[in-house]
Amino acid sequence: MPSEVVIIEAVRTSLFQQTAPMPGSPPPDMRRLRAEVVSGLLERAKIDHSYITSVIEVTERRTHHCRRAPNNLRPHGNRRIIRVRSSIAAVQHAQSLVQRKPETVAVISGVSAGWGTTSEAVLDRSQTVPQLCREQVANRWGITRDDQWDYALNSVQRADECARSGDFLRETIGQDIVPMLGSSGRIAGQRTRRSNTVAGSRLIEPTPMRCMSEYSYAAPAQDNPMPNDACGAVALLIMTAERADELGVHPRARLVGVETPREATLPGDPAAGFHSVRAFLHSNELTVDRIDHFEVPETGAVSPLMWLREFGVSPYMLNPRGGALAFGLLGAAEELRCLATMITALKDTGGAYGLVASSRLEGPGTLLIECLHNV
């Protein structure tokens, strides 16, 4: 029987929504940002970096300037560094590693430089799938333009309410990432506020999303809400339950299952993706009504609205603390950000099971966790 895989800790930095950098400005210091979030992760988990045996980095094409690992996690001895381009695939790889070798202690980290990364991804999707598909999907589920804007604005409002009440403090490390942004770190909305709970931390007040009309290649759907890009980092610590006992650390969640389909479904056929989610839950002896928290893509408002209509779940259980439409899209690390938020939310609300879904062309998949409330 495979060893039980647990998530010891999941943290992220503040998220900054960025506009285009000034000409000639240096890129954000992504290597330092990754080092800071990993350092914050290990400090929060109360574990020394010498115990880390595997480092999995979620990378993007635009982040070639941060390919080097943080100084405290460079390869040495049996330590391995693996780079993947999908958050879900990174978690699946970590699960496989720790189950094969129960002594493994794995760190997963992801960073996003913000401007340019998500825009490039949107361009890739628009070139691969005609924009008309988005309109056809919306019509199929009876989703109007007003529905999309109402959902998007509600996402911003939910996130703003949670930020004001301090709900994100547990998942956010206290480092101020402004010095790492270089001269290109212009914050959309310019509205940040100091937290009185964590010294030096900053919480971004969510800013309204932009329209696709900003992109010349998205003319067929000019008034669909789209997320801004976000700059930030996120990290997870994963091991077996037995190894956690040996190290004297307490897990926050159990990884029930993770799946990346062998063949990605076409974005124009979301019904196939919903069928795979149901099959995934069935394979883990669960049904949709057992899930207390859903984190689904917010690359636009159509996706979460499809989930609401397809599964009939409460809107208070789907991205309940806001999503990418509020915080910005954290590139390939977005699903890791969702996971960090979900673990904290399940703990706060007393929920048991949470599901994160991704529809990315480079890394679609689903993962399921169970919150451990004895911590």
TrEMBL record:
Molecular function GO labels:
acetyl-CoA C-acetyltransferase activity
Family (UniProt): Belongs to the thiolase-like superfamily. Thiolase family.
The EC number of this protein is: 2.3.1.9
> Which InterPro entries has this protein been placed in?
Thiolase, Thiolase-like, Thiolase_C
Transferase as UniProt keyword: yes
Keywords from the named record? Acyltransferase, Transferase
Q: Does the keyword Nucleotide-binding apply?
A: no
Name assigned to this protein:
Probable acetyl-CoA acetyltransferase
| Top-level EC class | transferase
**Any idea where the Thiolase C-terminal domain is?**
275-360
